[in-house]
Hints:
Blueprint: H1 9-12, H2 42-53, H3 73-81, H4 94-110, E1 123-127, H5 130-151, E2 160-164, H6 169-177, E3 181-185, H7 196-202, E4 207-213, H8 225-239, E5 245-248, H9 256-259, E6 272-278, E7 290-294, E8 306-308, E9 315-317, H10 327-364, E10 368-370, E11 379-384, H11 389-401, E12 409-411, E13 420-425, H12 432-453, E14 459-464, E15 472-473, E16 476-477, E17 485-490
Parallel strand pairs: 2-3, 2-4, 4-5, 5-6
Antiparallel strand pairs: 1-7, 6-7, 8-9, 10-11, 11-13, 12-13, 14-17, 15-16
Helix pairs in contact: 3-10, 4-10, 7-8, 10-12, 11-12
Amino acid sequence: xxxxxxxxxxxxxSSVVSSVFASRYVQDPPPRYKxxxxxxxxxxxxxxxxxxxxxxxxxxxxLASFVTTWMEPECDKLMAEAINKNFVDMDEYPVTTELQNRxxxxxxxxxxAPSTDRTRxxxxxxxxxxxxxxxxxxxxxxxKWQNKRKSQGxxxxxxxxxxxxxxxxxxxxxxxxxxxxxxxVKLREGYYVMDPQKAVxxxxxNTICVAAILGSTLNGEFEDVKLLNALLTQKNKRTxxxxxxHVDAASGGFVAPFLYPDLEWxxxxxxxxxINVSGHKYGLVYAGVGWAIWRSKEELPxxxxxxxxxxxxxxxxxxxxxxxxxxxxxxxxxxxxxxGFEGYKNVMSNCMESARxxxxxxxxxxxxxxxxxxxxxxxxxxxxxxxxxxNSAFRLSKALRNYGWIVPAYSMPANAExxxxxxxxxxxxxxxxxxxxxxxxxxxxxxEVTEAASGVxxxxxxxxxxxxxxxxxxxxxxxxxxxxxxxxxxxxxxTEGTQVPIMGGKxxxxx
Length: 511
C-alpha cells in the first residue's frame, strides 16, 4: 500500500519516466512503476534520477524543518566511508560501537546524569531519530509501571501518559501502537505549551509518566520542567505514587545546555528519569540519528533488552528496528569531537542572533504578532494581525514558494485553533544574508497577498479593429476605427488548493 501520493495530475497518465539528457545513453524510457526488463548504463541511471530530483525543494531554503541540512566536507567524507557498515553488527564493527558509547556518555554528562564515579558508564542508546528514542523511553515507563502494578495485585491494563496538546505526532503514534492512553492538556490562546498545574491535576494511579517538551514544535518554547517536578513531587507525597517525568528534548536538548546552563530541566531534577534528543536537529547531524538517555540502569527494565549472538559475540540490543547504517553515529561523534562545548555554544548563539534579526524585521512590517519566545530554540513563529489572519497566513506561505522558500503555515491544536501561525526554523546554515533576503521576499509577498485580498476586479478587453480596405496602400495606410466592439468577462481566479489532513491536530510534517 502506497501511503503518500504527491505526483501531479500531469504525471498520472504517464507510465514511463522521461529520460531527458539520459536519452544519449538509452532510447526507450524506463517504466515508472514496474521493474525494467533490461539494465541500462550507470550514466543513464544517474542522469534520470538526478534530473527528477531537481524538482525537489532546496534543503537550505526549507525553513519548515529542524533537520540539519549542512555539514562540513570532512564529515561528509567520514559518512561516505561508513555507509556500508551495519551498525547492529557490533562484534564486526567494535570501534563504531565504541563511538556510540562515547556519544551516549557525552550526552548523559551534558544532561547532568548522576554517577558515582568518573568511570561509570551512562545508560542510553543511539536510534534512527528522536521518535524512536521517545518510544523506547515510553516502553520502559510502561513496563516498570506494569511490573509494579502486578506485584501489588492491581490492574495494569489501562496505562496513560499526560502531555500537552503541543506534543509532536510521535507521541500519538506511541499511544496508538502500544495501547497507552494519551491525556492531553489543552492549549489556550496566548499560552501554547503544557500548563504544569493542569498536567499534574490529570495524573492518576495509571499514569506511567508526565511528558514535558523542551522546545515545542509549534513555537520553540521551553516548558517549565522545574515547576512540573515540584508540583508532581508534592502530589506523589500526598498519594503515595511515584509518577516520573520524561523530557522530550528533541529540539532543545542541544540548545539549552549551551545557551541556558542554569536552566534546570534535566537529570538535576529528581523525577526526570529519561530524556530523548535528536542528533539530526541541533545536534548538527544529517537526518537519521537520535538518542535515548536514562537516569540510571534501574530505569530500564532488563526484560526489554535482547541479547543476540548469531552475528558473533553477545550483543545486547534495545531498539524498535534492527539493521541501520553507521554513518550518522560516526557523524555525531565527529561533531562532538570537532565542535566541543565552545563550538556548539557559538553555533547556537549565532542561530539565536539570526532569529533575533528575523523577529525584529518581521515586527517592523507592522503586520505580524510574534508567537515564539525569545528564550527557547531558535524558532520564529508569527501570526498575522487582524481578522483575516488564517487566510493571509496560508496565502503568504504559498507566495513565498514562488521565491524558493518553504515556510509552513498551520493552525494551533485544540482550544487554540483560531490562531494560524507561520514558522521559521533557524538552523546553522541560515545566516544573516539569508535572513535579509527572506525579509525582502516577505515584503514582496505581502504586497501580492494584499493585492489578492483587495478584491479588485480584473477586466480583460478584446478589441476587434476593422480597417477600411480602400485606404490600405501597400505597406502603408490609415486605420480608422469607426466602431469598436469591446467584449469583457471576469477572469476566474487561478487558485490551487492543497489539503493536508492532520489527525489529532499534530504537526506531522514540520519536524
